[in-house]
Amino acid sequence: MKIIVINCGSSSIKYQLFDMDSHVVLAKGGVEKIGLNGSFIKHESNGKKVTLEGEVVDHQAGIEYILGILISREHGCISDFCEINAVGHRVVHGGEKFKSSVLITDEVVKQIEECIQLAPLHNPPNLSGIYAMKSILPDVPQVGAFDTAFHQTMPEHAFMYALPYSLYTKYAIRRYGFHGTSHRYVSERAKELLGEQRTQKLITCHLGNGASVAAIINGKTVDTSMGLTPVEGLVMGTRCGDLDPGIMTYVMEREDINRTGINSLINKHSGLLGISGVSSDMRELETAAAEGNQRAQLALDMLHYRVRKYIGSYAAAMGGVDTVIFTGGIGENSDSSRYEIAKGFEFLGLEFDETKNVGVRGQEKIISKDGSKVTAIIIPTNEELMIARDTALIVGGKQ
Ligand code: AMP
């Protein structure tokens, strides 16, 4: 069975084509700058990487471009579209409607459209990908995998905000959480690697440009750091994370900025970038801090401190923790961040092993001491594979 996984952003489409029988990624890549000058596609197949330029006006054209390259004689890996058995789409917001991945029907499309208000920047491009695939491959089944779905098991006391209850009933204002597919992948992988006994209470740290932590008991999220939108929680590349809500109105008044301005401030100009004034990128910040830039160092300290606070509070919320998982670009690659976050947790039963941790990038590895009551482990995430697996199960009629 061949499955293509599609992730449509506002001006990009990422894709991976899986052969589920041989467990091989046949092709992967992305179209960037859709609707802008200088669109291009980066494509990798048969061990060859190419970058091709071409005008891509919208997502429909982007999907046509991707499918075209997949069947092209020079760069392709299949001979006909009919070899594609199913399509899996990443969909950011599923509201309270979707608790797991689903087969996309007209009714499901309508429900995803109804969630647009909760994710006005993300759901419309996700839907564009679905519309495009439907028009080009009308007979191929499509599946939606939602970033929010895995966290739908959170109890009410964790997902409610202490606002008037009517805001929940009128507008569905509550905490949803994101990165669900990643938290689910690493939690399931941890169970395979460490066994059930050591993975009953998990804290999964997805630390990338966007970042979130989840508390998971027996495979079910009980709390997570992102909220109604992906701005809440950790200090991120350009997002502020947790904030005194009173700051919003204060800054709006003092700086004379409106709703759009404050939205842009907390989403695009805050976090590591806003604090350091240097960059939102961890590698650049690590370099700047090593050269003595104090604001870069402050940004790093704030990021690490906030993750530590979440780990501590989730351990308290769950009444303990068996394993702490690091994933995402920073979690998988930055040994100094992992050290700064996980050191000094002996009181929780976590004995971090500096030697095992040093220099590890992008590989599965236990980084706590042998015999540590709590395990710390790096597990590179693989959201695309998770979506492909869901798609195969649903299309195969097993879910
Ligand atoms: P993601 O959003 O998961 O792709 O993660 C992006 C973040 O991971 C950026 O802040 C990168 O700087 C960071 N990152 C990627 N590779 C490394 C590395 N080798 N060392 C430190 N940070 C890294």
Layout of strands and helices, then pairs:
Layout: E1 2-8, E2 13-19, E3 24-32, E4 40-45, E5 48-53, H1 59-71, E6 86-91, E7 102-103, H2 106-114, H3 123-136, E8 142-146, H4 156-159, H5 165-171, H6 180-194, E9 201-207, E10 211-217, E11 220-224, H7 246-255, H8 259-268, H9 271-276, H10 282-290, H11 294-318, E12 323-327, H12 328-333, H13 335-342, H14 354-357, E13 365-366, E14 375-378, H15 383-395
Parallel strand pairs: 1-6, 6-8, 9-12, 12-14
Antiparallel strand pairs: 1-2, 2-3, 3-4, 4-5, 7-8, 9-10, 10-11, 13-14
Helix pairs in contact: 1-3, 10-11, 11-13
Adenosine monophosphate binds at residues 208-209, 237, 281-283, 328-330, 333-334, 361.
Task: Describe the protein.
The chain folds into 2 domains: 2-149, ATPase, nucleotide binding domain (Nucleotidyltransferase, domain 5), CATH 3.30.420; 195-378, ATPase, nucleotide binding domain (Nucleotidyltransferase, domain 5). The chain is built from 15 helices and 14 strands. It is globular, with a radius of gyration of 21 Å. Helices cover 38% and strands 20% of the residues. The chain has an 8-stranded mixed β-sheet with strand order 5-4-3-2-1-6-8-7, sandwiched between helices. The protein has a 6-stranded mixed β-sheet with strand order 11-10-9-12-14-13, with helices on both faces. By secondary structure, it is α/β, with parallel strands linked by helices. The structure holds adenosine monophosphate (AMP). Adenosine monophosphate binds at residues 208-209, 237, 281-283, 328-330, 333-334, 361.
